[in-house]
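Consider the following assembly input.
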Amino acid sequence: MIDKENIGQDMYNLAGRLFPICRSLSGKGVRQTLDILKEYVEEAGISMQIHNVPTGTQVFDWTVPKEWVINEAYIEDENGNHIIDFKENNLHVMGYSTPVDEWVELDELLEHIETLEEQPDLIPYVTSYYRERYAFCMSENMKRSLKPGKYHMYIDSELIDGNLTYGEILIPGESQKEVFISTYICHPSMANNECSGPALSVNLARYIMSLEKRHYSYRFIYIPETIGSITYISSHLDYMRSHIVAGFNISCVGDDGDYSVVQSRYGDTLADKVILNLLKYRENAKVYSYLERGSDERQYCSPGVDLPFVCFCRTLFDQYPEYHTSADNMDFVSPAGFEGAYDVMTDAINALEHNAYYQVQVLCEPQLGKRGLYPTVSRKDAWDAILVTRDFLSYADGRNDLIDIANIAHVPVTEMIGIAKKFTEHKLVVGEWRD
Amino acid sequence: MIDKENIGQDMYNLAGRLFPICRSLSGKGVRQTLDILKEYVEEAGISMQIHNVPTGTQVFDWTVPKEWVINEAYIEDENGNHIIDFKENNLHVMGYSTPVDEWVELDELLEHIETLEEQPDLIPYVTSYYRERYAFCMSENMKRSLKPGKYHMYIDSELIDGNLTYGEILIPGESQKEVFISTYICHPSMANNECSGPALSVNLARYIMSLEKRHYSYRFIYIPETIGSITYISSHLDYMRSHIVAGFNISCVGDDGDYSVVQSRYGDTLADKVILNLLKYRENAKVYSYLERGSDERQYCSPGVDLPFVCFCRTLFDQYPEYHTSADNMDFVSPAGFEGAYDVMTDAINALEHNAYYQVQVLCEPQLGKRGLYPTVSRKDAWDAILVTRDFLSYADGRNDLIDIANIAHVPVTEMIGIAKKFTEHKLVVGEWRD
Amino acid sequence: MIDKENIGQDMYNLAGRLFPICRSLSGKGVRQTLDILKEYVEEAGISMQIHNVPTGTQVFDWTVPKEWVINEAYIEDENGNHIIDFKENNLHVMGYSTPVDEWVELDELLEHIETLEEQPDLIPYVTSYYRERYAFCMSENMKRSLKPGKYHMYIDSELIDGNLTYGEILIPGESQKEVFISTYICHPSMANNECSGPALSVNLARYIMSLEKRHYSYRFIYIPETIGSITYISSHLDYMRSHIVAGFNISCVGDDGDYSVVQSRYGDTLADKVILNLLKYRENAKVYSYLERGSDERQYCSPGVDLPFVCFCRTLFDQYPEYHTSADNMDFVSPAGFEGAYDVMTDAINALEHNAYYQVQVLCEPQLGKRGLYPTVSRKDAWDAILVTRDFLSYADGRNDLIDIANIAHVPVTEMIGIAKKFTEHKLVVGEWRD
């Protein structure tokens, strides 16, 4: 069902379909995005619910904002040339800009222009969510090239009462306890810091759907960052607290850089534990403390919410110079980049699916030889051949889950899964779920 | 009220007034010293109590000793020259020397002379508190220059029943819980290892008196080392145990060397915590374990006493070669040295005064923008600008005091104080005292 | 009673007596070995019990095997030459080989030959305990030199119902709590990985017997590895759990290499604690985690058994190339090697014998001077002279045993024993046993 061969390319292609859409916290772009994702999972027999929360709804300390409708935006010079145009790149207009239609001198125009001085070729991504104003974004080089004269600032936009829209998938397992995967759908045309998350997330949903059996239930949400997670938490907190065993906020998962995790507030949750074990044995892995947080883990892990979430990325947001600029485009991500992230996340899911507390059923070492599990000739090298196996049995004492055992034995938990299954079949160990 | 400009010079000058006095465990020198300190704090409206504990009082395993009265002491040669004289330097006579008035040959004289072979220019500081004998102290060079002949050993001293005298200040705060500052007044003319401690301590008292409000009460004592702290503890232990939240033994705080702390026995008290946080962000700071103890922390932290004390110094006693010699004089200390110590201790006091357990009052991140606490335009660098603020809010979860939060955020607690005050005013956090 | 001068040589000589015997899991060689050990301890007034457990007895997941009787074994060439012969080296025949008496071509012979390709001069040690088959062992060089032709494979052996035989010593102390020392007697002619363990163990028994008084009782067992410890545990587990405070599996203790310890499963037992303290202050000491286990600690520490055992060695098994080969002979071990191991183990025993929880009996520092325990003249260097003493008193707070105090003071516990005894005599501290 999963085309493992081409999984990286599939995700890359899906991200490419999402890329051109102009998204914001809410509105048409979000709904177009969700339509694509919904169709993509439905092909695999998975249904996605679409939810709407009206403008003005109070969510903890925040209020659901108006929808931003943007139809057209450009700066026109005296000769009628559009020196920038929203149609060419939706980063050219600051998110949530209010309408304007005015001819001004260069000096006044410059007051409404955002650039990046240190990256003079790139258009910055800028928004002004919670105060009404307008601005255009362009490269510093273009700004410097502007000649004195008259310019037409034109933005045809509206802020209207509407809805915050998000998508939700639930794939039930044997247990009502949930693994929760969150990603966001609120940035305009940026590839890594927007399209990569949903593209990976829906493919993880398809992977989970393809499993023969599932211990855990899996929930996925597709929300605008910050206000979306706050909105979701505000109406689901009790349920989340009593059901989620591990949560992953997924962001920036399409590039070829480091594998990164931002740990939870105290770094002590099951989500931390599984990812840290896996990253320890990957080259180019980086573990960031919660001090380096930046995405929705800020809400999931906040004091009093305290859900067991980490944020998983390839290169961490703001650790790559293309972040929040026009250079975060489809050239910056790659099929191989996506595939690496997919591998880590599916490893994490498999680890969680076998992460019971194991207890060996005999006292002293089991006689492996009579079960055909140990060489019957004791040569110098017989011992080494089954070292990980023996370490599993030595620490399957009812006190450790599978990740604990892997950590003690200094191996990735993926190496322990097959061993745990084999000895469970031989009834030499019994795994117990404690959540 | 506090002349912050000249605080270093003020302390230096006060130490200079204390320097010439010949102190010992008890007696006239101690009382002269306390008179000066009492007058100094009374100028700031602070009263100091003077206490007397009679000779022979049993204090735990010890007995309050007799007072040592020293009037005159010298060694005279055959020509009537005083080759050394107590009048010139009170280190020339061993503390608690019994009287003598005898002409002897050089050989016999030498049996009563103490020097420092490794530091041949310096007079050592030597005492014989608990066995009656006499000796003179001089430089090794002088000893080597002595010619055969007759010498007059003359010491006019007495051991009399009297009192162990100490001074005590209490500055009350909102809470009856106390911060306790101890220093000693029992060494003769040594600048760092004697005069610096009282000079800093009374200025800390003046600083605390100048605060608009105080959460804690503050108690200061001025005692002879070892026997004084044992005497004080023996009659106040229950009170100290139930009232002291953090104690600081202050010693050697006038030189320009390292900032040093000797941790408590297990390094786990509030006094350790605040000083360790502050020293971590100072250059030239050294943290010593209790194995390096040497002053009255030996009593305050002893088994069964277990008060939450550290010892704070600039260069740790016995880590500087001038220690316990005539070179520990007013040239060895400096206004800047005093001021550095004053800064650390006033930082510690300010930290303790704000060291409540903070709890943020909303779920998920607060909306800082609507309160004018966050830039409303989200540019790439907006986040960094308020990083420490956000870290405060993220760990103000009711489980951490302010120092814990600072430690988690890797900043000195002094950086958190203003933030905690601001958010307390905005009612976004509430601080709770737990002691 | 103990000839400390010659203790290393004594152990070496005893190991030399055990060396030529052909031992296996059970049978005549084991009984000959136990006879020698029994006689050796009886000279010192210690009795050793000999126990027999019949073939076929079920012990947890295992079954006591048949006895292997080996009378003669060789390979004969066409000229009647014995190219190898069991009489010359008992490693030449694989342990538990079944009988054979057959002339075969070289090709077929080679199927029954074990060698070590990487160590072409050495005969390997190979056994086939739990499946019936036969084989010869020789050097790789000899194997390569074999010419085509006919060869006579001859093994005169039997597998018969008999007993698993082991020896046991108990030396009672004031407490019924036991220190337990285990070693094995099941390998043929190997010096370090067989004879060294029993040779040290019986000398430790003699040492303990020579002590004026013993706090703990001491038990020693001499068993075949793996099946022997499983057998012993299967019938003594409750007793062992309620009585053993520290256990030492002794193996490979005659060479001149590192001092090694394999920690218990979680490294947190009293046996770990005492050996780790002692090895920390020895040069050439190595601490291995339980992941490096290999001898009977595998059974004593197994889940659900969880006895407080470590394995003590000089060079750890399989860390020296002579391990399990004909090069592990009497040249590989030495009197000095044995003596070093004896020193560590007798240090460990002495440490355990004084490892009470100490509590100082006065508040604040004791007045050592009046007891003649401190110099009465306070010079600069007086303090250092009694530093370890003071550290003992500072941490004798009722919370630490003697090893804890030594660890805090960064000294081997052996330095603390005399101090603890002195202050116990002065009634300044009281030691309390908590097990």
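The two ends of chain C are 30 Å apart (CA to CA). Ask yourself how this observation constrains the way the partners meet.
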